[in-house]
Design goal:
Blueprint: H1 2-9, H2 12-21, H3 27-37, E1 41-45, H4 51-61, E2 66-70, H5 77-90, E3 93-97, H6 103-109, H7 120-139, E4 143-145, E5 162-164, E6 170-172, H8 180-189
Parallel strand pairs: 1-2, 1-4, 2-3, 4-6
Antiparallel strand pairs: 5-6
Length: 214
């Protein structure tokens, strides 16, 4: 029943109206509007570059909002160090989700398959999709904050600030139209760290969709 109720929350026309109304709005105003629409929200992160911006912005509007971190188990030492710093500095309410199999075990059984290998779909399911579904099923959000931005992938170019996930959750990307340069200034103005030594084992190319958002 939960999924059906979420699907009734917003129509495609309402989403289009929101995108038109908030195209020039600040991230903070976008986030405030999302919380006005529904307070059962969470923000997802993988602590890739520029993630501190969305975490700071959402947390500044609603402290202690659940932050879902789906850790593939293959992050770089720099990413883990960066994550710990951001979590501590922003006092984030983090819920950690990891694959059911350790990366060491999977290295023996499968390794990290190339995107063309038959095992790649199973690998992506194990390290990214299953933990994410588990998180969403446990939290059952109506609003999902992300740091998706225009220009990252062909799919992300089409969604706008507000969009609907496949199961009807309102997906909100407050920095959707922001460039790296503009985000650099945001991080600097708010004394936030950034880290570029990030590794996604499911993606061979930076502009390849990971599977969570398509």
């Amino acid at each position: 029943m939960g999924k059906i109720n979420r699907k009734k929350m917003f129509t495609e026309n309402q989403i289009q109206e929101l995108n038109e109304a908030f195209k020039e709005a600040s991230p903070i105003d976008i986030i405030k509007k999302a919380f006005e629409l529904n307070t059962k929200a969470l923000v997802t992160t993988n602590f890739r570059p520029y993630e501190a911006a969305i975490l700071h912005a959402v947390n500044s509007v609603e402290a202690k909002v659940p932050v879902v971190w789906c850790d593939t188990g293959y992050n770089t030492p720099q990413t883990y160090k960066h994550a710990e710093q951001v979590i501590k500095d922003l006092d984030l309410n983090v819920f950690l989700y990891v694959p059911k199999q350790t990366s060491s075990h999977r290295d023996v059984v499968m390794g990290i398959p190339s995107i063309d290998a038959p095992e790649h779909a199973l690998f992506t399911e194990q390290v990214k999709l299953e933990p994410f579904r588990r998180a969403m099923e446990e939290h059952k959000p109506n609003v999902w904050f992300t740091n998706l931005r225009q220009g990252q992938t062909a799919f992300r170019n089409s969604i706008g600030i507000f969009s609907l996930s496949n199961d009807g959750v309102l997906k909100v990307s407050p920095f959707y139209y922001w460039s790296d340069e503009k985000l650099d200034r945001y991080l600097e103005e708010n004394n936030l760290p950034n880290e570029f030594k990030y590794f996604d084992p499911t993606k061979a190319l930076e502009n390849r969709e990971c599977g969570l958002h398509a």
